[in-house]
Design goal:
- The radius of gyration is 18 Å and the shape is globular.
- Helix content is 79%, strand content 0%.
Length: 278
């Protein structure tokens, strides 16, 4: 139950971070937004170090660095995927892949689910797709390149979660610090190489920093959930993050919640209840 609650908190934090990051990216080039969000996220993790502890054994450094590279790749592929659209088709693909790969890894590592889990897990995967889908999902067909990028983005997100899970359980926030430091360096290097293409628009500093802080909180909650529960269950619950984005868009931007998304939210509630029984 603790792992489930932590995963739900991680999902909500990821959804809020994506919402704020998306708003920030509307005001300036996405790399300008990430250049603020990544250091803000790293700052939070460094502040948590004295309270939660951190060790930097070779395994921690290796898995943390791997998660950082995957995180940077996820940012690049995800935003490129959504830029070439259609979002309402590609977003569910990305979310589903990001959930399925950790499930497979968890089951291969010997995790077992009871009857309630065997029913709840497919329902949660279906909820990921329904919550992510917007109006008219069948109205446009993505190109082969767009689909490949969506699969790549989902795989990168999944690998980030898997690598964090593989880090030693006694490493505290070490993997998060290493991962965020690596992803920050990669992002800043990419921004330096593309400096002339970033434009002159100033980023939304507060919004971008808040997105980074929430992303850091989401990573921490996922790590704690994965250490206290099954990766297969935690990853699927975490992948419900579009629900937070959808609800915020409804509340703040007055965007419509479509019938498929409402069904997805209901399906998610049923799935979470079933998974809580496992």
């Amino acid at each position: 139950m603790i792992a489930l609650l932590l995963a739900l908190g991680s999902s909500l934090a990821y959804g809020c971070a994506d919402f704020l990051g998306g708003l920030g990216a509307r005001k300036a080039h996405v790399l300008r937004t990430v250049m603020i969000a990544a250091p803000a996220s790293l700052t939070v993790e460094l502040l948590l170090w004295p309270f939660l502890g951190a060790s930097f054994a070779p395994a921690t450094l290796a898995w943390g660095a791997a998660s950082g590279v995957a995180s940077a790749a996820a940012f690049a592929l995800l935003y490129r995927t959504l830029a070439i659209g259609p979002m309402n088709v590609l977003s569910p693909v990305t979310a589903l892949i990001s959930a399925m790969l950790p499930v497979g890894v968890g089951l291969l590592q010997g995790e077992h689910l009871g009857l309630a889990g065997l029913i709840g897990l497919p329902l949660a995967l279906a909820a990921v797709v329904l919550v992510s889908a917007g109006h008219g999902a069948g109205s446009a067909r993505p190109t082969r390149a767009a689909l490949l990028m969506a699969f790549g983005a989902g795989a990168a997100i999944a690998l980030q979660l898997i690598f964090l899970h593989q880090a030693p359980s006694d490493s505290g926030v070490g993997p998060l610090i290493v991962g965020r430091a690596v992803s920050s360096v990669v992002t800043l290097a990419a921004a330096g190489l593309m400096f002339r293409r970033l434009g002159s628009e100033k980023p939304a500093y507060t919004m971008s920093a808040a997105a980074g802080v929430l992303d850091s909180v989401a990573n921490l909650l996922f790590l704690l959930a994965a250490r206290s529960g099954d990766l297969a269950v935690v990853a699927v619950i975490t992948a419900l993050y579009p629900a937070g984005t959808v609800l915020l868009a409804r509340t703040v931007l007055a965007e419509r919640i479509y019938r498929t998304q409402l069904i997805g939210l209901g399906t998610a509630a049923v799935a979470v209840s079933l998974l809580a029984l496992t």
